[in-house]
Amino acid sequence: MRSALYMLAIVGMQHNQAVKAFGDRLRSHGMAPKAVVGACMHKLVLLIFGVVRSRRAFDASLAMPKLDF
User: What is the pLDDT of residues 11-59, one digit of tens each?
Assistant: First the structure.
């Protein structure tokens, strides 16, 4: 499970605007690179849980409301 989430986090930090902004913010605050990946893994789990629970498509404006997409 961890290896699958690791790869999802790596790809998410490159292609998903919400996860990318989250990772960039953590990196700018001086967090270690592996800790940033771990935090992005946790963020993805929360996003997946929200999508499954609400039965709605992913909406980046709901995931990160302070970002301007």
Answer: 999 998 889 999 999 999 999 999 999 999 999 999 899 999 999 988 8
Contact 10, 23 (CB under 8 A): no
SS (H, E, C) the chain: CHHHHHHHHHHHHHHCHHHHHHHHHHHHCCCCHHHHHHHHHHHHHHHHHHHHHHCCCCCHHHHCCCCCC
C-alpha span between 48 and 12 (Å, rounded): 12
Cα–Cα distance, 31 to 1 (Å, whole number) = 24
The token duo for 2 is 């961890």
Whole-prediction pTM value? 0.84
